[in-house]
Structures are given as C-alpha cells and as structure tokens.
C-alpha cells in the first residue's frame, strides 16, 4: 500500500512524502521534458520523409544508395547556403528535380491503386516510415520478385537504376491484401515497357555524379567568397 500511495502522490501532488532516493525507477519521467518539442520534431520528421520519399527509408544516414546520398548532400549544402543567393536557388532547382522524379513514380502507383478501387486507402498504402524493417515483412521473397518484374517489364520506374526499396514494403502490403497480382497486371497495362531502349529516360536517371560535382564546386566558391569578404572587412 505504501508503494501505491507514493505513486499516487508522485502523479497528483508535489508533497515531499513521495520522494524515495533509492527508487530510481519511480523517478523516471513519464513524458519527455518538452512534449511539444518532441511531437513537433516527430511531425517534421514524417513530413520530411513524405517530401523526400527516400529510396531506402530505413537508412537514417541516407548514404546506402547513390540517389539518396545525392539528395541528402544537396539538402545539407542548401542548409549551409545563404537564402536567396544564386547558389541557394540552383540547389533548390536540383532538389526539386529529384523530388519531382520520386513523386512521379509515386503518382503512378497511386493511379493504379485508385483504379483498383483503393481511392481512400492509396495514400496510406504508399506511406513508408523510417521504421520500416525487412524483418517485419510477411512476403519478402514474393515482394522482391514482383518488384523485379515491375522494374524489367513495365515503365513504372522508367529507369535502369535499381528500383527504390521503399516499394518493396508497399508490395508486401499489397500481397498481404491479395491484390499484388492485380496491381502487377494493371502496371503492365498502364505502363508498358519503353520500345526504344536507347531513349533517354528521365526520373532516377538524373546524372548523380554531375550533381555532386556541382555541389562541391559551389561549396568551394562559397568558401572563397567568405574569405574575400573577410579580407575586404579587414581592409576597411
């Protein structure tokens, strides 16, 4: 009864009778020091995930895939660039180009899902959080085989680069709902493979090395500009 009374005091009053220096567990806060800040960061994290549509959602470093690493590098470089500058605008154009490419792919998937009758559920089915884990997948081998088929026998990705892993988790959901084969059939119908293999393909075929080289060059120029500004201030 004494322990229960102390817990009651700790939750509903501030009296010193509830203090117990030997019981560290009861002193652990039930919520973070600033709940509002915590939830704000979580909301921003989810918003960033949906905005960037990471190819490897389970990779917090965004370094395992070239396209994720390039986008992350562009974002980091823009954060260090003065807002409104020429470099900032150029980086924003490159970032939006990569995001548009990813949204284009996502929109194709959404079109098929809506055609299958999942108008209300399409967005939820296409949402993949950073906590996605292959260990939790129910039909991983079948999902990977279907992803390969979509990549090679349709133009839903429209690129020769490996398909984003995020769609592996989505296919696992569709297989669990027993609509995987229906989705594949619709994809083949709506987005048949390109006839001309030499045709330049947009999307994930963005020249990633060129983008990275451009970022490095811009960072170098930014450093030079900062040094020039410092020198001019000294001369004044």
Helix and strand arrangement:
Blueprint: H1 2-12, H2 24-27, H3 35-52, H4 66-79, H5 86-115, H6 122-125, H7 140-153, H8 166-176, H9 180-190, H10 208-235
Give a nutshell description of this structure.
With 236 residues, this protein is an all-alpha fold. The protein has helices at residues 2-12, 24-27, 35-52, 66-79, 86-115, 122-125, 140-153, 166-176, 180-190, 208-235.
Describe the structure.
The protein has 10 helices and no strands. It is 61% helix and 0% strand. The protein is mainly α and 236 residues long. The chain has helices spanning 2-12, 24-27, 35-52, 66-79, 86-115, 122-125, 140-153, 166-176, 180-190, 208-235.
Descriptive labels:
236 residues; mainly alpha; 10 helices
Q: What is the H/E string?
A: HHHHHHHHHH
Mean pLDDT over the residues: 79
Report how far the terminal alpha carbons are from each other: 76 Å
Q: What about the largest sheet? A: none
> How many helix segments?
10
Helix share, percent: 55-70%
Q: What overall form do the CA principal axes indicate?
A: globular
Tally of strands: 0
What fraction strand? under 5%
**CA-based gyration radius:** 25 Å
List low-pLDDT spans: 8-27, 197-205
């Amino acid at each position: 009864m004494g322990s229960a009374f102390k817990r009651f005091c700790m939750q509903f009053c501030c009296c010193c009778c509830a203090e117990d220096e030997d019981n560290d567990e009861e002193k652990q806060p039930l919520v973070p020091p600033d709940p509002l800040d915590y939830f704000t960061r979580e909301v921003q994290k989810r918003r960033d995930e949906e905005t960037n549509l990471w190819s490897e959602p389970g990779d917090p470093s965004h370094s395992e895939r070239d396209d994720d690493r390039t986008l992350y590098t562009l974002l980091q470089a823009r954060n260090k660039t003065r807002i409104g500058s020429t470099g900032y605008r150029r980086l924003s154009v490159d970032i939006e180009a990569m995001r548009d490419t990813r949204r284009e792919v996502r929109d194709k998937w959404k079109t098929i899902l809506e055609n299958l009758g999942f108008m209300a559920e399409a967005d939820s089915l296409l949402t993949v959080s950073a906590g996605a884990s292959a260990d939790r997948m129910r039909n991983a081998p079948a999902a990977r085989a279907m992803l390969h088929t979509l990549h090679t026998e349709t133009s839903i990705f429209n690129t020769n680069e490996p398909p984003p892993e995020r769609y592996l988790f989505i296919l696992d959901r569709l297989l669990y709902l027993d609509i995987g084969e229906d989705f594949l059939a619709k994809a083949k119908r709506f987005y048949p493979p390109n006839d001309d293999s030499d045709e330049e393909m947009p999307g994930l075929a963005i020249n990633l090395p060129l983008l990275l080289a451009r970022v490095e060059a811009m960072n170098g120029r930014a450093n030079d500009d900062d040094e020039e500004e410092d020198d001019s201030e000294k001369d004044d």
